Amino acid sequence: MKLFDIIILDMKPNLSEEKKLWKKGYKRVACIDEVGRGALCGPVVAVAVTIIKKSPFQKLWKSDLHNIKDSKKLTPKKREEFYKLLRNHPAIEWGLGSVSEKVIDRINILEATKLAMERAIENLEKKYSHADHLVLDGKIKLD
Questions:
Q1: Per the domain annotation, does 22 fall within a domain?
Q2: Average pLDDT in the 104-121 region?
Q3: Distance CA 89, CA 91 (A)
Q4: Do 115 and 99 contact (CB within 8 A), yes or no?
Q5: Which of 8, 60, 81, 128 is the most exposed place for a label (fewest CB within 10 A)?
Q6: Domain of 56: which CATH number?
Q7: How many distinct structural domains can be found in the chain?
Q8: Span 61-74, mean pLDDT?
Q9: What is the span of the domain harbouring residue 93?
């Protein structure tokens, strides 16, 4: 897998990076993000998501999802609605990776975050197929 490291600071998700990569000929662009790095206890969790090019998702994106900037700012009810919508959407492929707080304490939060991201990618590729490009939100580089 080719690594494409992008720093995204305080911007709304907009598919612009995916569109650039699709134009370059990449078909399976996976994006990855994590949650839990700032928590005092609990796991760090990462998700890798592939949005199928020219899919019904882009229409859904324009109508419902483009205003979401941070899921933590949504009400629990709205978050649950989006979760149900996205989890089974035919244009979205996803994989989850998690690392426990015990492992975090042993290897440190940065290494645990990388491990969660690697597990998310492995899970995505096990359920679907190999991503040909990876977009990271932040400065973390995977081996």
A1: yes
A2: 94
A3: 6
A4: yes
A5: 81
A6: 3.30.420.10
A7: 1
A8: 66
A9: 3-137
pLDDT of residue 47 exceeding 80, the answer is yes
Quick check: is 143 in a domain?
A: no
Residue 27's Cα: distance from chain center in Å?
17
Residues composing the chain: 143
Question: 135: which strand partners?
Answer: 4, 31
Q: How much is the pLDDT for 8?
A: 44
Kindly provide the b/e burial profile for residues 115-127, where b requires at least 16 CB atoms within 10 angstroms of the residue's own CB.
Answer: bbbbbbbebbbee
The reply to whether 55 falls in a domain is: yes
The tokens describing 14, both together, are 């907009």
Residue 6: pLDDT above 50?
no
CA distance 48 to 55: 18
